[in-house]
Amino acid sequence: MTGRVASIAFHTFKESVRERVLYNLVAFALLLIAAAILFGSISVGIGEIILVNLGLTSISVFGLLIAIFIGIGLVWKEIERRTIFNILSKPVRRAEFILGKYLGLLLTLVINTGIMTLGFYGALFYQKRTLEASDLGALEAVYFILLELAIVVGLALLFSCLSTPVLSAVFTFSLYVIGNFLGDIRWFGQETGSTLVQGLTSGIYYLLPNFSNFSVISQVAHGERVPAYLLAANSLYALLYVSILLGAAILIFEEKEFK
Amino acid sequence: MTSAGVKGSRIGGLRRICGTIVVLSLVVLVPLERAINKEMARRGNVGELLYLPSGRAFQTLSLGYQGLLADIYWTRVVQYFGRKRLAHATRFDLLGPLLEITTELDPKLVIAYRFGAIFLAEKAPAGAGRPEEALQLLRRGIVANPDYWRFWQDLGFIYYWDLKDYASAARAFQVGSERPGAQVWMKALAASVAAEGGGLRASQLLWSEIYRQAGNDQIRRSAVSHLLALQAQEEIASLDALLRQYQQRTGHPARDFRELIAAGMLRALPRDPSGVPYQIGPNGLATLGPGSQIDLHLLQ
Amino acid sequence: MPAIETLDLTKDYSAGFIRKRPLRALDGVNLRVNTGEVFGLLGPNGAGKSTTLKLLLRLIFPSAGTARVLGRELDDVAMHARLGYLPENPYFYDHLTAREFLNYAGELFRLPCAERRRRVDQLLVRLGLEASADLPLRKFSKGMVQRLGIAQALVNDPELIFLDEPMSGLDPLGRREVRDLILQLKAEGKTVFFSTHILSDAEVLCDRVAILNRGKLQGCGELREILSLGVSATEVVLENPPAGLLEEVRKLTRPAVKTGDRVRIEIPEEADVAPVLEAILRRGGKVVSVSPVKISLEDYFLEQVRMGPEKPPAEQGVARVDKEGER
Question: Are A247 and B51 within 8 A, CB to CB?
């Protein structure tokens, strides 16, 4: 089982690596990180903060774009071009296909994020002429970005099993945005004082992916470290949420007919 | 249907596993999220509120939706403030940065400056007790919206109340009164503050105007409390005068207002604006009775 | 043990967006394909050929009935290790080369690396793709893609090979090569199950055929048997018929068909042959040939399709659904 999953994952990775849009996105992110040095140099005193903020935000935003744009096409393209026939007619379980596709894109994202992170540290070194142990805090932010992307890819994959790429992109992006404001939504529900609204917003709060705990960029920019507790809790959260998404995707995919 | 039965046996296992994983994960997710929230609250970690320390950096990334984002941030300001107040917090560290981001995203969001300045300037526990930051915020608002005279009113207000800088307050009211559309009473206010500084008339005028134009209940309630406190302060001053008179007349200090009634100096027991009778303190001066709703500290 | 056995295999598609109407794409099909034979599934577009193959490969699920492939249940995906499948109008990943794609296919069968490489090289040669082995697939012509499709169906050296319209998109030479390949596979003892709407292919290759029309099995058996069921006719060809002859002939049998100088007369009833010939000779017509016409598969086929039940409106949908699959 693992062999076939790895094989599908590797080919998914290969496919996305040969996609031109990927290079454009990574190049643009690196450009923005480089530009952050300029932004930093025209302001006084907070050059490093701006670099960290803008650099990590670029990594997050472009990771998100890559995750969505490649993730939504993952399964859809195989169904639409009927390349899925070649795969499923071989001794490949449908669950293996889904897992392979997911891991393949995750691998793509890890490597891209790695490249962007290297670019970021390069820019940081250029700015400070040195790197200190405290700069490792950015890695924690990058780790959280990856956890977030792992959930986003799961969302994109799930929607990709259900719907067209355009709709999948819209759904995934909407959920990402909503997921960042979930705390506000629940607070709003509690403020209204209506039990119905409260129940509804609490339900939404726990059901939808909550991304608000993953954004630590500004803390990192101010030199704060992420508490170990949050590292562990967020890792577990992402793991659980990805399990939900993949479980649901497999359940849907097992039933799917390829006409 | 036999095929369904076969499918059930072979594929059913996988389906059950997936279903179980989904359900179990969901079940574990809820307490995990609760625990995270609790821990974050315990640490007082509100970093989540601030995505970026600067609204300007955010503006470039907001792809033209600054207006909407500003509104979202404004909502966050209100919530942050409300939440903190509910929790009886005394520190409002993020209030300034949040307001800054909001107004940088949308420099025309007038309410953010005005409301924000009040939040910032008010003394704890009602506000952050940072009048200097409030003044900065208002000055930025004035730069972005030069024709909006009410910022000057707010500016004067903060000088008057929080900084007790009556000269600056009078100047602010004066400049504001010269802006287009400014109400006439701004001139009166400027004159009154210039003439008597922190005097009672100027204070009453100020708070009545605030009460009259208050856009929401919170401000209106605040204005009412201030006006009542002012009234009580005025009443206490006259009662003190009566007490001094009584002592001069009888040679000994009064321990109860009933003695003044007996002496024909008062017709009834004096009550403060919230209806609680005044008392005579150990120093022989009039004070608020126990349970009074009036908060004289507002006036300090 | 038969290679494939179906029992009342039925597939309904639900069509319509709001009001779901069941559309029967396959209706109670019973088939039995023996090990080692080449079996042809014949039928016009939309007859249910692709549906049958997809059901057997678990790309879709039967609405009713069962089937066994290589003695295993359809849900037993492990059995796919012994199968090969060429989808109809196959499409493969643009970003891969032929070699990479075949390698990927081999990996999915968990073939050990050395064996995989050997099989891939072998198949590239066997299907005449060795020259373009390292070209990205987006540069492949339709015929080359078709060959690659066959190659990937053979990468695991399967016992049973499903080919969905294997000749489509091929030029006459390629067609010939695929025919030869199928015969080679047969010689190697493999079972080949293929669908086609091109009857000449079936006539040349198949041990047995099944004929599908509108989801129903019209007939199944050896071609000889099926064809001997048909009625033969006699064909008379003459040259430069004299005036008045054709009018006389028309009274006796079917009207003549004129092509250039020649005229072809098909006489379905054997009893009519003698009077027609007599009339021709009497009028001084020049007979080129007189030959018996065995019914062709094509004729049989047309007859079956013509005799099929009137199309109810719902079944037109079936044809449409299936055509989408054949695009």
Answer: no
